[in-house]
Amino acid sequence: MKFTKTLLLGSAAGLMAATGAFAADLPVKAKAVEYVKICSLYGAGFYYIPGTDTCIKLGGYLRAEVALGTNSSYGAANGSPAGAHNRLSNYYTMRAREDLNIDTRTATEYGVVRTFFDGVFTWTTGGYQGSGSATGSTVYTGNLGLNTSGATPALVGSSINGTDGNTSAGSLGVYYAFIQFAGFTMGKAVSQFDAPWTNYPGNNFDGLVGGSGTVTGVTQFTYTADFGQGVTAAFSAEDATAYYQAGNVNLTGATATSMIGGTYGSNAIGGSRSPNLVGMVRVDQAWGLFQASIAAHDNHVAYYGATENTGHPDDKWGWAVQLALSIKNIPTGAGDVINVSAVYTDGATRYNFQNLAGSSYSMFGSSGVAYQSVGFAYAPDTVFITGSSQETVKTWGFRGAYTHNWDPYWNTALYGAYAQAQYGSLAKTALCGAGGAGGVFGGLAGVTGCNPDFAVGQIGLITRWTPVKNLTFSGDLNWTHLDQKYSGTVGYAGAGTTAKPAALYELKDQDSITLLLRAQRNW
Question: May I ask which residue range the UniProt record assigns to the signal sequence (predicted)?
């Protein structure tokens, strides 16, 4: 009995000891791991990438819009076929777009290393352009998606939309992709020449003339110096090939038909030789900002003819200068702002007639004296004739907007722009003769005035409603006026791409009125 009692007590003690040992081996409740940690170094919206000291911020928007009276997502109705103003022109163009941007920043001993990417996924209404042939064939110029060769297919009849209406098609674009380190910006970013609002001093309209605007970024290598007190300066070497080639045109190939179509000869741009060189100084203060920019653009032509032994004109450097001013906190209301800029170019036309506006116009309208009226204009960087040097085209212009906030939910902006292009004596003699009554166009029957100079004026009104934060509905009404300097009438041979017949046309100024309705959710 004593032995049994001893055995039981010993077993109990051993069991208790074993239980304690097992308990010691059991896991205790671990401290919660913070998988997403807020990064407060660079403002709201940044988080640390897990396991790193790099902060990241995601952003973007989703946009749905319809532009009335234009064949583009939102520009003036000019060119082919929009400027025809007939059954080939779109009454509307619709677009849906998702934008995604990724901002990363890392603190280092040399300062912050930043990368920024902004890409867009877009679906846009297709355009249908008639060929004018007896078979009635049509060219589809929209988002085919299935065509990877880059060629525009000719489609006929019911096959125009392919097998599924191209419901899965669309396009991918890259706006910005750059690295910033120790004052340097390397990659695709807004040009240092541009005003901070690029093409949009207060508008949604894409085709505003009167200044530069690389809203989709230009590849560059830039150094920016910060002098403190809001004063910065930058020097930049920027890619000239994507957005800044308005044309180096050999007028020897010009014809009356091509001129009415908005081209004055054959474009003879050679290979790229130099990036555009840009300098900028800016002052940012509580009252607003002031910026001065200057750019140099190399005009490099290939040959007078098809082969090397035909010769070529020497390179000619063009330049542009722009001043921009923003005034904030004006007495008319909280948040009201005035943005204005002015520009002058000599052989660097795209710094005034920016790439989304273009510098070629061919527009038709009504007439009381002829079949219809036509207005046309063209502003390349330089022109020449076979055997001559390049002659620059000079332009000047301005743009601006006043934005008034009615209350926290509604605001309205009144905006406008003006740009003028002026040719030299070589161009005017070749196109219009020494006295304006000869040359390619001036000597034609019915032409009473010949001058390739022209101007474009624009005015618009936009109202925005933001019922909740980051959701905005807007309506933007724009009027664009082409003031061309040709007068009289001309016998035009017609063109299949605009379905215009051979007839007598009046030379006359032209207008375009467009309206954009947009819904946008930023996030």
Answer: 1-23
Q: Where are the beta strands (DSSP E) in 360-451?
A: 360-365, 372-378, 382-384, 391-392, 394-405, 410-422, 447-449
Three-state SS sequence of 27-45:
CCCCCCCCCCEECCCCCCC
Q: Where are the domains of the chain?
A: 59-522
State whether residue 402 is helix, strand or coil. strand
pLDDT tens sequence across 382-414: 999 999 999 999 999 999 999 999 999 999 999
**What's 102-148 look like in SS3?**
EEEEEEECCEEEEEEEEEEEEEECCCEEECCCCCCCEEECCCCCCCC
Q: What is the DSSP letter of 332?
A: T
Secondary structure of residue 10 in the 3-state scheme: helix
Question: Helix count (H) and strand count (E) of the chain?
Answer: 4, 30
The token duo for 184 is: 């340097």
Rg (CA), the chain: 31
Task: Report the alpha-carbon distance of residue 192 to residue 186 in Å, rounded.
Answer: 12
226-235, 317-326, 491-500: segment of lowest average pLDDT = 491-500
Dmax of the chain from CA atoms?
A: 139
Residue whose structure tokens are 């010009």: 254
Residue with tokens 């032994």: 309
CB 352 within 8 A of CB 345: yes
Distance CA 295, CA 298 (A): 10
pTM, full prediction:
0.87
Q: List Cα–Cα distances, 301 to 41, 55, 204, 246, 276, in angstroms.
A: 50, 47, 36, 12, 16
CA–CA distance, 428 with 346 (Å, rounded to integer): 17
Q: What is the pLDDT of residue 470?
A: 97
* Cα–Cα distance, 259 to 131 (Å, whole number): 19
Question: Which residues does 140 contact at the CB level (< 8 Å), separation at least 6?
Answer: 126, 127, 128, 152, 153, 155, 160, 161
The domain defined by 59-522 folds into Maltoporin; Chain A (2.40.170)
The mean per-residue pLDDT over the stretch 350-372 comes to 96
What is the predicted pLDDT for the residue at 485? 96
Q: What is the per-residue pLDDT across 41-59, written as a single tens digit (0 to 9) for each?
A: 999 999 999 989 999 999 9
- Residue 482 and residue 377 in contact, taking contact as beta carbons nearer than 8 Å: yes
pLDDT tier at 437, thresholds 50, 70, 90: confident
Is residue 446 packed enough to be buried (19+ CB in 10 Å), middle (13-18) or exposed (0-12)? Answer: middle
